[in-house]
Amino acid sequence: MTDSRGVVTTSAPLAVTVTGNLTADFTITGSTPGPDFGFCDNNITLTSTSTGNITDYSWSIAGLHPLQLSGGMIPGTYPVTLIVGNNGTGETAQITKNVVIINHAPIANPGGPYSSIQAVA
């Protein structure tokens, strides 16, 4: 290190131990294969596959905190973030993946049976 007078000094080596081994990751299971994970009226399940001594899990889906996206999501791309942590060490790890909800055309069923959802007033 050089001080303001131009004097160079050195110090004894300092051993630094880096601890922690959290790795955040998750899988997405939906109703469609490939990069589009679900239809707008089907469920999508998020499952943590994180590793390490984890004591806390925090999910964020487009700013919300549910563990599962349910039917009724409008088509679009939703960022899903998982943060895992260890209260004892203060260590955290984070990962974000996109969930893509797509629309699908209705499937005709000639001859029935037919059903409908009754509106509630």
Can you describe this structure?
The structure is a single chain. This protein has a domain at about 25-100: Immunoglobulin-like. It contains no helices and 7 strands. It has strands spanning about 25-30, 40, 45-50, 55-60, 70, 75-85, 90-100. The mean pLDDT is about 75.
CATH T-level topology of the domain at 26-102: Immunoglobulin-like
The helix content, as a percent range, equals under 10%
Name the helix and strand elements from N-terminus to C-terminus, one letter apiece. Answer: EEEEEEE
Count of discrete alpha- or pi-helical segments spanning 4 or more residues: 0
Question: Helices, strands, pairings?
Answer:
Elements: E1 26-29, E2 38-39, E3 44-48, E4 56-61, E5 68-69, E6 76-85, E7 92-102
Parallel strand pairs: 2-7
Antiparallel strand pairs: 1-3, 3-5, 4-6, 6-7
Keywords:
three-stranded antiparallel beta sheet, single chain, four-stranded mixed beta sheet, Immunoglobulin-like, mainly beta, 121 residues
Task: Put the structure in a nutshell.
The chain is mainly β.
